[in-house]
Structures are given as C-alpha cells and as structure tokens.
Amino acid sequence: MSDDRRLDVLRAIVEDYVATQEPVGSKSLLDRHQLGVSPATVRNDMAVLEDEGYITQPHTSAGRIPTDKGYRLFVDRLSTVKALSPAERRAIETFLTGAVDVDDVVQRSVKVLAQLTNQVAIVQYPSLTRSTVRHIELVALEGSRVLLVVITSSGRVEQRIIELVETLGDDLVADLRTRITRATVGERLPEASLKLAEMIETFSPNDRPVVTSIVTTLTQTFTNERSDERIAVGGTANLARFGSDFDTAIKPVLEAMEEQVVLLRLLGEATQGLSVRIGTETGHEGLSSTAIVSSAYGTDDLALATLGTVGPTRMDYPATMAAVGAVARYVGRTLADN
Amino acid sequence: MSDDRRLDVLRAIVEDYVATQEPVGSKSLLDRHQLGVSPATVRNDMAVLEDEGYITQPHTSAGRIPTDKGYRLFVDRLSTVKALSPAERRAIETFLTGAVDVDDVVQRSVKVLAQLTNQVAIVQYPSLTRSTVRHIELVALEGSRVLLVVITSSGRVEQRIIELVETLGDDLVADLRTRITRATVGERLPEASLKLAEMIETFSPNDRPVVTSIVTTLTQTFTNERSDERIAVGGTANLARFGSDFDTAIKPVLEAMEEQVVLLRLLGEATQGLSVRIGTETGHEGLSSTAIVSSAYGTDDLALATLGTVGPTRMDYPATMAAVGAVARYVGRTLADN
DNA sequence: TTTGGCACTCTCACCGGTCAAGTGCCAGTC
DNA sequence: GACTGGCACTTGACCGGTGAGAGTGCCAAA
C-alpha cells in the first residue's frame, strides 16, 4: 500500500469538495482525477483516512467530506500556494495606488481582498504601538483645552482634545512642544511613553500637574487599546457562501464581525507569514465551520498589523492564501512609501 | 357599511401580521381583536381592502398580508408612536453619557439603536458642511509638508497632510494661521471656503501659489463628499429577522450597507422629524421588502445629520419610530453639549 | 496489494391522501 | 341596506410509502 496515494486521495477529496460543495464518493472522485486505480482501492484508502480522522461521512451511504484535521493536513502538506493571475495582481495594484491616506489604504484593501477571495475581509489599521513617532504637535485651543496630534511613521494621525483644569501659558505650550518632540520623535511609542515620564521631572514643580495630565493622555493615546484596535471589515455580502442556515452559519459570523475584541483575537498576533486557522482552531465557538487566513503586513523588519479573511472551512485555501499574502505585501509596501 | 371599521380591520391585520409573521385570516383575526362583528363581515371588508390595494393574498385560501400601500396607510393614519419604556430611555442615556468624543458618540448610538429596534442601525456622522469652524490649525511638518487640523462646532476633528512644492517659512505659516483663523472661525464651512478664497488676494504675489494650494485643500476638506459621508452601521446580525431567503432578503441589504453612497441616499435629506420609507419607496431595488425609518438629529435650529434603521417592511413601526426619534433627540443633545 | 462483484444502507425526490385554514358567495335576518 | 351563517371550494402543509441512485463494506480472486 502506498502512503503517497492515500494523500493523493485526500487532496482529491478536498479539491472536489471545495469545488462541488458535495460529499465526494469513490466513483465520482475518479471521474475528475486520474489516480490509476479502481474505485475499490480508493474506497479502501478512504476507509483508512476516515479511521485516521481526516475525512468523515455525513451519513452512511454518502460520500466523504474532509474534517478540520483533513483540511489542516491539506494546507500543511498537500497544497501549493497558487500564483495570482496577472489580472488579480493588477486589480490589487490599481486599487491601492490611488489611496491618499492611511484610512484610504485600509478601506481599499478590505474591498479588494473581499473581492478577490469572495469572503469576508478584515484589515487591522497599522498598529500604533509598533510605529515610531514622526511628528507630535501640541496646540492651545480656546479656554483650557489643548489639542494633541500625533503622526506616526506609518502615516496614521491620532488626535485628542485634553481638558485641563487651568489655562496654559503660550510659552509653556511652546516649551512643552519642543521638549515632547525632543523626547519622542523617532521613538517607538512604548519607549516614547517612558521618555515622557522621565521628562516630567525636568519641569518646575509649578507646572508639573499640567504637564503630567498632558503626558498621561499622550501615553494613553500611545498605548490605548481602543485606538490600537481599529479594524475595517468588508465583503459581508459574501456570507452567502457560508451556508444556507442563517442561525448557525451566518449569524455567529456577523456577530463576531461586530465585536472588535473578537476580531482582534481572530486576526491573531502579527507574526510574519501566513497563518491559517481552521474550524475549532479559531478558538471561537460560533466560527467552528469557518476558517481564517491571515497575514501580518508591514516593512521587512517590522510587522505593522494583520489582515486576513474569514470564510467557510470548505474554501479554496491555495487561492485564498495567495490573495491574502499578495494584499499584505502590497499594503506593506504602500504604507512604507508613505 | 362603516368606513371606520374597515380601517380597524386593516390596523388589526397589520398588527397581527407583524406579531405573528403569518398571513392573517378573518377568523384568527377575531380571536385577537374584538371587532364586534362576524368573520363573514370581516371577509367582506377584507375583500374591499384587497380591491383597494391595501392587502393581498400570497395565494388563494391563505390569509391576507398588508401591501406597502397598506403599511403606508397604517403609518400615516392608523398608528400612534409608542412611548418608550423607562428602561429603554435609561438604556439610551447610560449608553450615550459615557462617550468621550464624536466617534464614540456615533459608535454607541449605532449600538443602542440596533439593540432597541432589533434591526440594522445606521448613523451618519455630524455633517461637516453644516457645522461651524471652532478651531483651525496649521502646522509645519518636516520637509515641505503641512498638517492642517479643523475642529468643528459639533466636535469633529478632521485633518489632512498637505504636500507642498516648496518649504514654508515659519513666519509665513504663523501669518497664514492667524489669517485663516480670522477668516473662518465661527463660520459655516461653505461660507468659510468663500472667505478663504477672498483671503488669498491679501497675500503677496510671491506667496500666493503656496497659499492657494493650502486653501484648496482646506476647501476640499470642508466640502469633500468623502469626509461628509462617514457613516456607521451596526446590528447586522439582526438581519436574521429579515427573512429566511439569503439571496433575496439578506444579501441585497448587506450589499447596500457596504455602499456609502447608497446608505446616504437611504438616510435621505436631513429634514427635521421622522421619515418612513416603505418597500419601493426606498428607491432601491434590493430593498423592496425593507423599510427605513430615519430622523435628523441636531440642535433645535440646525439638523446636523441623519440616523435611522433598516428593517423588514413587516416591522413594529410605532416602536421603531419611537426608538429612532428618541435616539436622535439624545444624540442631538449629547453633541450640543460638546 | 489491487480489483471486480455483490449485498446492503441510506437519503432524497416523488406521489397521493388527508387535514386545517381560509376564501367567496348566497340566501336569510334584522 | 348591512350583517350573518352556512356551504362548497381551493390550497398549502403534513405524513407515510415507494423506488431510484449513490455510496459503502466486504470478500474472494487475480
């Protein structure tokens, strides 16, 4: 018995099932793939594959469908990432080149990713905490309000309006601005926060309360989860492909898509390279029949954030992985140019 | 024959159908409403109502369901807006009072509106073009870049980074800042644009190219559709209630929800008061079995923007209208306090 | 180890009958 | 003239039975 052929059979089953959405039997499998053996042999192989937990039958006398474990093996060892067609590459390129700012880049990537994969696309905004400060600005508004603007290396602009207890003198504002700038520009945001804390000491005791309150807000802005958590979702209309039963197949996904916290967990840590989580591997109950393909994007040396797609476990993994990878590369490049 | 009773019958049909989601027959209608007449009489009334186009039968020997025209009549003449329960009022209040900025207010209102109505909620960000300028700031960044920040009366903060052809002198930036401030603060944005155009003349011919390019961007920011079009959507999981057929009932709605342009048209012009559009009145093909309840929000004298819900035509109109109205009032008040 | 054959199992689509709900119409009553 | 009770008719939903089709497991033979 050849171990290789059994894997070929598994691959054929996955491919057929993804294409037809129907349990695949030994005979119809041979109609579409030349394995050079008879149906009976395939049946034997299938029995073994089922014993080992890679495929399963919805009911006796039905064909087989892959299990999560089967998809896992397929992704890990049986598939090669499809190359994108030139048309697809061009689509990504033309979609992304017109973008004017970070918001725009994210918006457009969600759209193109959803379109390419026919799935639900998720794109996380470039992380604040992993960027460096490019520019920081402090502006006195009317009354005792101060506007704080931070521009990061990835082009994100964050602003906060701070309500102070007392009005700031113009000279103090100017002084603060230069000192904050000196302390933070070029630094990663977490380190910038540390430097800022030290900086407080250098002010006269009189000014410290005000300075502290500004620095606190600034630090919050740098490290605040809420601002680090921004995420764009698109292509929800593709949920149609997830299955016909709304309550079990579609509703949980829609609910997850509205929960930033869940989305973040799903995208996962921004490790370099493609990550595929299948079924229960997503760690989310409602998503047990979906799979998530994600990838970090960023510059060569620094992952800025993550993007990916959510689709049914019976998806075209090679194509999806190719699309996610390509969009991640383009987005990383686009933001680096900024 | 009493015309009033026929309207009572229509009201009963709408109420029953909304409650049960099933065609209502003459007999079961009398089980739930005391009309003081026999089923046969109700049948006669129903026949007339059907002739007039207010109700229809899915098939012979089925009960009747209201047509769009029937709902229209119901909304216009047969229903009174339900008062919100104290619990609901409290829910809105507690949800909105914690908001820290405009983004937060909008985010939270979408959520609470979706929750209250069990429908898809849409909230437009406060319009830029209808706000006045509260503060405007011009900051020279590194190189020939300039950061422009506009804060409006409704609390929105918009920023743009402008790439100039030449580096600006510090004194020119300062000069520009004060002059732009003088020209625009307190003005409505469209008028501010006009004033800015005039202002260009007051600069020396040397500086005019730079000034023009800044003013242009500023004007674009003020009147740009893209920034005026920001919209938040929530409660898409409630699409479950729209019907069981994904392709005809749910997909079109999801698609519409992803198209800013469509959404804007659906919310409609921000006229004061509640607006209800039923079925084809939405002017959007895919939404022929949905209804949109929307309302402008803002201060007494100025509508800032619109919010509303999208639901199936068979919705509880009085309750939905009450919720939309209440949330609009609260949001208007919250933003006015800002 | 592979293969062909065979008996077996299960789902699904189809069919016909029955049931319940609802209608339209008509003749009778107030 | 408006309302009512009665009746015949229509129709979708439900149910059980049936047959076809697809697929399986197993076994003996190559």
UniProtKB/TrEMBL annotation, chains A, B:
One of its GO terms (biological process) is negative regulation of DNA-templated transcription. GO terms for molecular function: DNA binding. InterPro entries: GAF-like_dom_sf (IPR029016), HrcA (IPR002571), HrcA_C (IPR021153), WH-like_DNA-bd_sf (IPR036388), WH_DNA-bd_sf (IPR036390), WHTH_transcript_rep_HrcA_IDD (IPR023120). Keywords: Repressor, Stress response, Transcription, Transcription regulation. Residues 103-321 form the Heat-inducible transcription repressor HrcA C-terminal domain. Coiled coil: none annotated. The keyword ATP-binding does not apply. It holds the Pfam family HrcA. SUPFAM superfamilies: GAF domain-like (SSF55781), Winged helix' DNA-binding domain (SSF46785). The keyword NAD does not apply. PANTHER family: HEAT-INDUCIBLE TRANSCRIPTION REPRESSOR HRCA (PTHR34824:SF1). Belongs to the HrcA family. HAMAP family: HrcA. NCBIfam families: hrcA (TIGR00331). Negative regulator of class I heat shock genes (grpE-dnaK-dnaJ and groELS operons). Prevents heat-shock induction of these operons. This is Heat-inducible transcription repressor HrcA.
